[in-house]
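Handout for the seminar on molecular recognition.
Each group receives one record of this type.
Step one: identify the two inputs.
Step two: read the structure output and locate the region that could contact magnesium ion.
Step three: write two sentences on what you found, then compare them with the reference statements printed after the record.
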Amino acid sequence: MTFERLPRHVAIIMDGNGRWAQKHSLQIAMGHQAGVESLRAIIRESSDLGIHTLSLYAFSTENWRRSAAEVNALMALLLRYFSSEIDELDRKNVRIRILGDKQGLPDAQCRAVIEAEERTKNNTGLNLCIALNYGGRQEILRAAASIARRVRDGELTPEQINEDVFSAELYTAGLPDVDLLIRTSGEERLSGFLLWQCAYAEFVFPATLWPDFTLDDYHAALREYEHRDRRYGGRKT
Ligand code: IPE
Ligand code: IPE
Ligand code: MG
């Protein structure tokens, strides 16, 4: 599969695990489990295609509102995922980054994700961002507070605050803005994902539920992106 123009940064809101479980008369946890299979294939393909950054929305700051049983199942899955995948990801030269408030995760999960970041920090292949306990407004507020502290401490003047200074305070510091955002399951909203970084992103909303999302669906989204005309407010002459 070749593409004339690939996005540098693909962001995916992996939605529809619950509906998939329901459709198959399975427990919700099985839907999330099935979702992990999709994720494996999409990460591998992104790495093989040479995509620069892949960001996956795995758990939002609002997802704590779900039942304890579901949250526990997701957290257990997270631990299992990191212990079973880390070797292959490292071997594939993938660099893992967590977007979100890691300290707000249970201890074991917090330790596992920090370990994965540490272990892969010198890798130079795909940047794999996993958003966990992530909220876009929370990320922006955190950046604003950090900048306010720097101004208070005399490191920075208000006039020096520009987009680069601000971006450098986000979880995605140093990574490009999102080019293509995919949300599966037919929902057409951001639910707080990468609000700043999606300012000029192209959006694709496949109806497929995340556990059913195949490489063909991924290629279709990338193909769709290839045909989009990105103007950034300008006009083609
Ligand atoms: C997305 O699937 C995964 C997470 C939020 C962790 P959902 O669980 O939101 O699936 P639906 O929206 O209920 O189908
Ligand atoms: C967004 O999906 C979060 C993740 C996919 C992790 P949700 O299913 O939680 O979002 P809403 O509630 O439909 O907006
Ligand atoms: Mg959902």
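Reference statements: The mean pLDDT is 97. Helices lie at 17-23, 28-49, 68-91, 107-120, 136-152, 163-167, 215-226.
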